[in-house]
Automatic annotation (TrEMBL):
InterPro entries in UniProt: SCO1/SenC, Thioredoxin-like_sf
Keywords of this entry: Copper, Disulfide bond, Membrane, Metal-binding, Transmembrane, Transmembrane helix
Top-level lineage group: Bacteria
Record carries keyword Cell membrane: no
Taxonomic path: Bacteria, Pseudomonadati, Planctomycetota, Planctomycetia, Pirellulales
Name of this protein: SCO family protein
Residues annotated to bind Cu cation: 84, 88, 179
Keyword Transferase belongs to the record: no
PANTHER family: ELECTRON TRANSPORT PROTIN SCO1/SENC FAMILY MEMBER, THIOREDOXIN DOMAIN-CONTAINING PROTEIN
Family: Belongs to the SCO1/2 family.
Region (Disordered): 277-308
Pfam (any one): SCO1-SenC
Biased composition (Polar residues): 299-308
């Protein structure tokens, strides 16, 4: 099969994958529990966060996000809140465990961590107590200066959350924020290089993501895309839950795409062979003088003369 045909087939398969993933996702969102609707993470890799947004640090100082992106270091961003009944605790506990396994990971030297509260009613004093808890668990002298806990007004929090595709909402019945768990890795210019959807990040994966953000590399994770499609955050269970219908739909679609990719070359080759077989045969070439034809002499036409 020609290179151009291979490229065309690849483009068609990728386009179909993107289109069908969106269709499947839209069809199945209506089946989610009510408290999980509106809780999502949209892919914003390659986009920039608004560094001019204003917040308060744990000491009550007014700061802009730009302050944490002027050091030439990548920034790890999380969106949590101190009164979270379970998900934030699990996410930050696991982050501490990851950092301890990589000996602090170079907080304040190789990268900074910025944790922004999604609760506009959270005070900087409460955020400070939360910071003291987690920094104390790290037992790293650089963590105090490298891990920042910020609070702010609702409009600024929402603007930041929207810029990274972090979808959450206030649950009036249970009096809590329903939100996903995501860890973002941003370049020193505030560009989203990667995000991970999980309550915990393995040390190797964390180091790799920080390194990519330091170099400004953009990474779209296929695993995260599948998690987004086949799982939803269950606020009642404080964890991500698999949706059987989503998984079955995605599995069926993936099988169809795989089968198409495997059989398409066969059908294209058969069609090419059939086209070649039915093509009109080429007319024979006219013999030349070099082949022994009589040559016209004295202006008479001897093209019909026999061979010598």
């Amino acid at each position: 099969m020609s290179t151009s045909l291979n490229n065309l087939l690849m483009i068609l398969v990728l386009a179909s994958t993107c289109l069908n993933q969106g269709i499947v996702r839209a069809q199945l969102l209506k089946d989610l529990p009510d408290n999980a609707l509106g809780v999502d993470v949209e892919d914003r890799v390659g986009e920039f966060i608004p560094l001019g947004l204003m917040f308060e640090d744990e000491r009550g100082n007014k700061v802009s996000l730009a302050k944490y992106f002027r050091q030439g270091r990548p920034v790890v961003l999380t969106l949590n809140y101190s009164d979270c009944p379970g998900l934030c605790v699990a996410q930050l506990d696991n982050l501490v465990n990851t950092l301890r396994e990589i000996n602090g990971g170079g907080i304040g030297e190789k990268f900074d961590i910025v944790t922004v509260s999604i609760d506009p009613n959270e005070s900087n004093e409460k955020a400070g107590r939360t910071k003291s808890k987690y920094v104390g668990l790290l037992r790293d002298s650089q963590a105090e200066a490298g891990w920042h806990f910020l609070t702010g007004k609702n409009k600024d929090i929402r603007a930041l959350a929207d810029s990274v595709g972090f979808r959450y909402h206030w649950d009036k019945i249970n009096k809590r924020y329903n939100h996903p768990a995501a860890t973002y890795f941003l370049s020193s210019e505030g560009r989203i290089c990667r995000y991970l959807l999980s309550l915990g990040v393995e040390p190797e994966q964390f180091n790799l993501a920080v390194g990519e953000a330091r170099e400004g590399k953009l990474t779209a994770s296929l695993a995260d895309a599948i998690i987004q499609l086949c799982y939803y955050y269950d606020p009642d269970a404080n964890r991500y839950s698999a949706d059987a219908r989503r998984i079955m739909a995605f599995g069926g679609f993936a099988f169809t795409m795989l089968l198409t990719g495997l059989t398409a070359p066969f059908w294209f080759s058969r069609r090419t062979a059939a086209t070649s077989a039915t093509a009109k045969p080429a007319e024979p070439e006219q013999p030349s003088a070099a082949d022994g034809h009589a040559i016209s002499i004295g202006g008479s036409d001897s093209s019909d003369a026999p061979y010598n």
